[in-house]
Amino acid sequence: MAGAPPEGEFGAAASVESEGRGHGGQLLLKASDEAVTFMSSVEPAELLKCVFPDSLVTVSESGRSLGRFSVTVEFAFRFQQTCVLLHAQSQGAIDNSPCGTTVTAYLTTNLELLEEDYYEYVKLEGHSLEKRCHMVQCDGQMVIDNVTTVGEEVTKKSVSYPMSVLEGLVTEGSLLVLMRLVALRRKVPENMTFISFDQGFDMFHSTFSELGVTQMDVGGETVEVYGIERAVHSVEDRPTAWHFHFLDDGHLASRQQVASPVTMRLLQMPSQQEKGFEKIPLDWEADMQMRSKFLDRKEELKADNASYLRKHPEVRALISDFLQFLLLRKPDDVFRFARDYFLPFASHCPPESNLKSSSL
């Protein structure tokens, strides 16, 4: 995915003390007024049109399937407010080495990031590479924790930025929702310049521009798609661009990094995927056969779960210890507390088990 989480040389935790300079003395960048205005202008009715799943296939120039990409957007309740929940996942292989990325983000209705988890892995022969980045708003700061694991070596880094300098921030999670909104409006305002973080925790500019309307083959049908270019202007590297094309209803039809031989493509029109699946109201309590199957399955699951707990008494002990510690500390952020509590146990699990548990 574009816009990978922070990584690189690791050291002690850092923070931004002033609004003029970032960590290491880097000059803080600002988003354009047009970009900030766009985010603040988002209406609930527009967000409702963005609540749907997308599923694409990653293909090579020759048409060979390399993996899959999926994203879902829905409403949720988090941090005592209604927010947008995005979950995106890509899976594939690089030179026959399994790899994947998972992003889960909670956003305000104006696309301000509340919390985001980014997980990336590559399984190489003999060892694996994992990157985890967690971003969350806390006491007026955006706190970023990054953990990179290469084989048995684990490196960590943490920084924080005051929210006052992050107007117009676009992350991997908010980007996907933002692109849907732009596509539904069918217009990219001039001077759409956002800010993002590079792999060293520094800011860079990210700009949007319009590619216009073109035609594309989707499932044997020629359809019109609306194109948007996103360009990343890193301080150290040359600009990198991605092209996105969307259907009229906001569904993503294709996504490609410019000059890359790999493309994510929609293989079938959404309406065709849903065709023939009519929703039939079910009253399982009135249907004796269905009720009987439900009760049998319920008892089967209860017996299976009880058997597993008898074989693994450490499960009850682990949960009991966690709950006692939780009630003793009574943290405001239960999710962060749980993550920090169970993180040390990850080192006791084989890499393959960690990867499977992280996939959704």
The gist of it:
With 360 residues, the chain is α+β, with helices and mostly antiparallel strands. It is built from eight helices and 15 strands.
What does this structure look like?
A 15-stranded mixed sheet has the order 1-9-8-7-6-5-4-3-2-15-14-13-12-11-10, with helices on both faces. The protein is α+β, with helices and mostly antiparallel strands and 360 residues long. It folds into two domains: 14-274, no CATH class; 288-358, no CATH class. It contains eight helices and 15 strands.
Q: Secondary-structure blueprint of this entry?
A:
Blueprint: E1 14-15, H1 33-40, H2 44-49, E2 54-59, E3 65-78, E4 81-94, E5 97-107, E6 113-124, E7 127-138, E8 141-150, E9 153-162, H3 172-185, E10 192-197, E11 203-218, E12 221-233, E13 240-246, E14 252-257, E15 263-265, H4 270-274, H5 288-311, H6 314-329, H7 334-342, H8 351-358
Region (Disordered): 1-20
Biased composition (Low complexity): 1-14
Main location: membrane
Please write the string of helix (H) and strand (E) elements. Answer: EHHEEEEEEEEHEEEEEEHHHHH
Cα shape? globular
Distance between the termini: 17 Å
Give unreliable regions as ranges: 1-21, 272-280, 348-360
Fraction in helix: 25-40%
Mean pLDDT metric: 80
Radius of gyration, rounded? 23 Å
- What is the SS-derived class? alpha+beta
Tally of separate helices: 8
List keywords for this structure.
360 residues, alpha+beta, 2 domains, 15-stranded mixed β-sheet, 25% helix, disordered N terminus, disordered C terminus, cilium biogenesis/degradation, nucleus, membrane
